[in-house]
Design a protein that fits this description.
By secondary structure, the protein is mainly alpha-helical. The chain has 3 domains: 65 residues, Multidrug-efflux Transporter Regulator, Chain: A, Domain 2, CATH 1.10.1660.10; 43 residues; 78 residues. It is built from 8 helices and 2 strands, in the order ααββαααααα. A two-stranded antiparallel ribbon has the order 1-2. Helix 5 packs antiparallel against helix 6 and helix 7 packs antiparallel against helix 8.
Length: 213
């Protein structure tokens, strides 16, 4: 079946589906005639399981480990319950700060944010999780993009240096050297621009759609 049918059956968007494919959580076959993705009922069932686990707050990596049998289903559930228990305790402390602000502050303009920021920092130092855990997916993708770009840029810089060094040993026509340096330089700039754009996409919430299940 096609992705539009899967979208309707599972109740998640095509963007969700492609995101989960990119994460390795579903691996549809390919039509040998045209190379297009071909989904079957096994893929639909897998996506429904992924959708449920994401709604329960499981990160993609943990779902993948469970799929691969590296973490048992029972262990995965127990770990998530433990995280939720900790999160519940964290939320109770955050709730206490909200109650304190409600009692002590009359309106937004009179709110002395620095005082409460300090309280929140103290909670964070005590182990309270204040950051949205879903951002872990974004941070992992940022790290991957940066590493890939750095490796490619380092490789191209090495090639440029190698060309310049080789030219000092055995001079080549200047036009060839200039062409190679300009070409590799343009590639480095292109990679840097692509990385910047990728980080902007991630920062602007590219994965928000995938978190809507």
């Amino acid at each position: 079946m096609k992705i539009n049918q899967v979208e309707e059956l599972v109740g998640i968007t095509k963007k969700n589906i492609r995101f989960y494919e990119d994460q390795g959580l579903v691996k549809p076959g390919r039509d040998p005639q045209n190379g297009y993705r071909e989904y079957d009922l096994t893929d639909v069932a897998a996506l429904r399981r992924v959708k449920l686990l994401r709604q329960l707050g499981f990160p993609c990596e943990q779902i993948r480990l469970m799929q691969e049998g590296k973490i048992s289903f029972d262990d995965g559930m127990r770990q998530r319950m433990s995280e939720l228990e900790q999160r519940g305790r964290d939320l109770e402390q955050i709730k206490a700060v909200c109650a304190m602000m409600s009692d002590e502050v009359d309106d937004l303009e009179s709110l002395d944010a620095s005082e409460y920021i300090e309280k929140m920092q103290q909670l964070e130092k005590g182990g309270v999780q204040l950051m949205n855990v879903r951002m872990s997916d974004v941070n992992k993708r940022k790290t991957g993009a940066v590493i890939a770009a750095v490796v490619m840029i380092a490789l191209l810089v090495t090639l440029v240096i190698g060309i310049i060094w080789a030219n000092t040993v055995d001079p080549a026509p200047a036009v060839i050297i200039v062409f190679c340096v300009v070409l590799f330089g343009a590639m480095i700039v292109g990679i840097a621009i692509a990385l910047r754009q990728r980080l902007k996409e991630l920062a602007s919430g590219e994965l928000d759609e995938a978190n809507k299940y």
